[in-house]
Amino acid sequence: MSAHEDDARDPAGAADLERLVSELWCEVLGLDDVGPSDNFFDLGGHSLLLHAVRDRLLARLGRDVPLVDLFRYPTVRGLAAHLAAPAGTGGAGGPGTGRETPGGRLAGIGPAHGGRVPASFARGARRDEEDEEW
Known about the structure:
Blueprint: H1 3-9, H2 14-29, H3 47-61, H4 67-72, H5 76-84, H6 119-123
């Protein structure tokens, strides 16, 4: 198969991204080989090691991948496909994903379904302090 035919089958470079993710996981986990369907956490990975993966992705791809995406896509193939997705279609932190936040790392927290915030929360008071007299 020619390189052109390979590009046509893999337009976003998912195969290259799979190799890259596999290499990074091997480095971080201290393993010789990681397969495309291997789960990061089943291989001994944990949240602290995800920071190292994230840092390496930033260094190699120039992309700041949110940690939540690394949790959401725990296999080599899943993460590579996610990284290969065009911006706006669920790609890592791309515009239009609905996950944009200032700084790209924290989720906004607010009342569910447009509900109101209790006045005690808005004032910053705890429930047990509401009835105290000053």
